[in-house]
Design goal:
Number of strands: 8
Distance between the termini: 62 Å
CATH class of the largest domain: Mainly Beta
Oligomer: single chain
Number of helices: 2
CATH superfamily of the largest domain: SET domain
């Protein structure tokens, strides 16, 4: 199934790599499984504390799929068209689906070969990302202030 996809530069500026299909898919098809290490919520939290997160698929409190250390998992390269940078006319064409306790990406419309697979990460994900960006900016500002004080 992985032969139906390729990873290359995303159409979304700043998104890095994206997942592109090499074949047509019909609306409603499960197109690729989200694979990875099965972990618990507690383990997910531990990894987040160590900044080892970003490719998590939530199934239940007892079952998360983590592809952080698995770059061979192609589904992790699907981006969200509604992220930090929006491109006019570029919309999500897929959704996440839980089927038989496994994570999948499902086509929400017919998808032609060559299209980027785009799937919503959800409002909570982007709220957390924006919060972390704001924290990082505040941290840098504090560091700059400390540096300026030491120069005086």
């Amino acid at each position: 199934m992985t032969e139906h996809f390729e990873v290359k530069k995303s159409k979304i500026p700043g998104a890095g790599k994206g997942l592109f299909t090499l074949k047509d898919f019909k609306k409603g098809e499960r197109i690729i499984e989200y694979l990875g290490e099965i972990i618990t919520e507690a383990e997910c939290d531990r990894r987040a504390e160590k900044d080892e997160y970003g490719y998590i698929f939530y199934i239940s409190k007892r079952r998360y799929i983590d592809a952080f250390h698995m770059p061979e998992v192609l589904a992790r390269f699907a981006n969200d068209a509604k992220g930090l940078t929006k491109i006019k006319g570029l919309k999500n064409n897929c959704s996440y689906e839980i089927w038989k306790h496994r994570g999948w990406i499902k086509a929400e419309k017919d998808i032609a070969a060559g299209e980027e697979i785009l799937v919503s990460y959800g409002a909570e994900y982007w709220r957390d990302i924006r919060y972390n960006i704001r924290l990082e900016k505040e941290k840098k500002l504090e560091q700059q202030k400390e540096k300026a004080k030491k120069k005086k």
